[in-house]
Amino acid sequence: MPTERFYRLPEEKKRIIRDAAFKEFARVPIDKVSINQIIKEADISRGSFYTYFEDKWDVLGYIFEESQARIHTLCSIYLEESGGDIWYMLERVMDCLLETCSEKEKFDFIKNALSHASSDELVSGLSGSKQECDRLNDELLRHIFSHYNKEQLRPMEYREFFAFFQLAMFAIAVEIKSFFEGTSVEEIRKSFTLRIDILRRGVCPLTSGDA
Predict the structure, then answer these.
(1) 3-state DSSP of the chain
(2) Taking the model in full, what pTM does it have?
(3) Per-residue pLDDT at 125
C-alpha cells in the first residue's frame, strides 16, 4: 500500500501521480511497466517515488483502491436515489462500468490488468491492497444491507445477503470480462438482465408452500 507520506500529499499532487501511473499501465502490459516513465510523466524525482510507493504493485494497488472507492460511492448514490431499490442499483452500476470501459485509455488499462488477473505475481503484488479492498467491501455491503428496500428480498441474515451480493457482483464481473473479449454492449445487457432475473426469481418452480 502507498505510504502515509503519499496520503498526506495535496489532492492535486496525488491526482497527477495517479494519472501518470494510470497512463503507463494503460500503455503497456503490467510486466513492461516502467517506473521511470511514471516518474517522468508525474514530474517527480525517483527518490520521491520510493517514499510514496514500494514498487509498481503499490501504485497499481492504489489505482484499484480508488476504483473500488468510486464503485462504492456509486452504489450508495444509486441506492439512495432509488429509495433502496437494490435491482436498480445493480443495473446502474453495470451501465456505469460499461460506459467507463468504453473509454480507450480505461479499456487498455483494464485489459492489461485482466491479462495478469490469474498470475501469482499479481496476487502477491496486490496482497496488501486486497486486504484494504476486503475491508472497504465489507463496509459497503453492511451499508447496503442496512439501507436496501427489505420488501424486495425475502427476509435474510447478513451472511445470506453477503452470498447473494457476491453472486450479483460476479454477474457484473462476468459481463465486464465478456466486454473485453469482444462481446457487444447490446448482448452484454441482455445477458446481464438474464443473470439478474435468475437471481431475482430463482430457478425452482414455486410450490404451494412458497406462494
Answers:
(1) CCCHHHHCCCHHHHHHHHHHHHHHHHHCCHHHCCHHHHHHHHCCCHHHHHHHCCCHHHHHHHHHHHHHHHHHHHHHHHHHHCCCCHHHHHHHHHHHHHHHHCCHHHHHHHHHHHCCCCCHHHHHHCHHHHHHHHHHHHHHHHHHHHHCCCCCCCCCCHHHHHHHHHHHHHHHHHHHHHHHCCCCHHHHHHHHHHHHHHHHHCCCCCCCCCC
(2) 0.79
(3) 47
